[in-house]
Design goal:
It is a single chain. This protein is of the alpha/beta class and 377 residues long. The protein has 2 domains: 6-152 and 332-360, 3-Layer(aba) Sandwich (Rossmann fold); 156-329 and 368-376, Dihydrodipicolinate Reductase, domain 2, CATH 3.30.360.10. The protein has helices at 6-27, 37-48, 60-70, 82-90, 102-116, 127-135, 137-143, 156-168, 188-196, 239-247, 260-271, 273-276, 279-290, 298-303, 329-345, 356-360, 364-368; strands at 30-32, 54-57, 74-76, 94-97, 119-122, 146-148, 172-182, 202-206, 209-213, 219-223, 229-234, 251-257, 305-314, 319-327, 352-353, 373-376. The chain has a 7-stranded parallel sheet, sandwiched between helices. It is globular, with a radius of gyration of 22 Å. The N and C termini lie far apart (67 Å).
């Protein structure tokens, strides 16, 4: 090669630096809570998808061990270490927040993202967290960042179902969503979040307003598949919040499959809510949870399946009903959260508070995994 002029060489060098920086920014994000069961799944899958997450959390031993194994950068800090948090966020375009219970951890992370202009994703299913995100939507828009809680099993498959029904029945006034799982179990993190909510009421959306109701106040048989027609009860699932922002449908109920024995226990819990709200009771339950397994085994995740059903109707009595078979919940969370992180890193990140289906469409769930099957009933 011949020599080049100083200006040309400088230009080539600058282009190289810009391309290098873009590449680094385009495959790097902060994964906070990487030491948790789901966080570790996300970290491993992110590498498989060509991303380089920076692992972060407050458990130095666990984070360091995982980072060394995966040959990834890592940071150790808690969410109340504001300076360290903001420094970490300032180095990345997006954070995927995986450390719950999010009712305690989401606000400091969201507010730090607003200050550092960092896109925010998390894997919550907690209604108050979605409403928190919605309340910060204007600030997120002004900051030019995306706030998107719920990029996992809570609430991607149900959110896509809600939008699918809305698209097929534009004048829908009522929406019911339900889910069930087979062949898996809860992780410690999920169980800890459930323990936080013991004794609290359920919720539905009535005429556009989230309204408290007793958990399990309604039941019905849900045809999840041709074979499985399971008893299901109302629960305060995240879609009570998110499906409204996705579809505008003002009346929403969410259900999950339950055995008759478990349903009787839920009804008993309602009578003992005064006791379950006691701090010492919750601490005792959390202590027992910590003694259990971290989460489902790899075999359980691979062989497990989740089922999602939805129905919408309008004032004229027209109805639309659909159901889907999707991967096991933690497996789906691992895949959907990384896929959404990729989308955001590629620039698909509208400013403000948004739900997954609102941004990526009703068919996004079909992109998450090739095994997803959807059918109208």
């Amino acid at each position: 090669m011949g020599e080049c002029s100083g200006n040309i060489c400088a230009g080539i060098f600058l282009q190289f630096l810009l391309q290098k920086n873009f590449k680094q920014m385009n495959n790097t994000f902060l994964l906070y809570g990487a030491n948790g069961y789901t966080g570790e799944l996300i970290a491993r899958h992110a590498i498989e998808m060509g991303l380089k997450p920076i692992l972060a959390g407050r458990n130095q031993e666990a984070i360091t061990r995982l980072a060394d194994e995966l040959q990834l950068s890592h940071l150790i800090f808690s969410l109340d270490e504001t300076e360290k948090l903001e420094q970490a966020l300032s180095e990345v375009p997006v954070v995927l927040h995986a450390a719950g219970p999010f009712i305690h951890t989401a606000r400091p992370m969201m507010e730090a993202c607003l200050r550092t202009q960092t896109h925010y994703l998390d894997i919550t299913g907690e209604i108050p967290v979605f409403e928190m995100g919605a309340s910060l939507g204007k600030k997120a828009y002004d900051a030019g960042i995306l706030l998107m809680p719920g990029v996992g099993f809570d609430v991607v498959p149900t959110d896509c179902t809600a939008l699918y029904l809305k698209n097929h029945l534009p004048d829908a006034t009522h929406l019911q969503l339900a889910f069930a799982s087979k062949g898996s179990r809860y992780s410690r993190g999920t169980a800890m979040t459930m323990a936080e909510n013991l004794g609290r009421s359920g919720a539905v959306r009535q005429n556009g307003t989230i309204t408290p109701v007793p958990t399990g106040h309604k039941t019905m048989k849900v045809p999840y598949t041709h074979k499985y027609n399971w008893l299901s009860m109302t629960i305060p699932w995240g879609d009570v919040s998110t499906a409204y922002y996705t579809t505008g449908i003002p009346n929403i109920e969410t259900y999950t499959a339950v055995t008759p024995k478990a349903y009787r226990m839920v009804k008993l819990q309602g009578k003992l809510s005064w006791l379950l709200k006691r701090k010492w009771v919750r601490n005792f339950i959390k202590k027992q949870i910590k003694k259990g397994e971290a989460g489902p085994s790899a075999e359980q995740r691979i062989n497990g399946r989740s089922f999602v059903w939805g129905k919408a109707w309008d004032a004229a009595g027209n109805t639309c009903e659909v159901r889907s078979v999707v991967p096991e919940g933690y497996d789906l969370t691992m895949k959907s959260s990384v896929l959404i992180a990729q989308e955001v890193l590629s620039g698909n990140a509208p400013a403000g508070f948004h739900t997954p289906a609102k941004v990526f469409g009703a068919d996004f769930i079909l992109q998450v995994d090739e095994s997803v099957v959807r059918e109208e009933i």
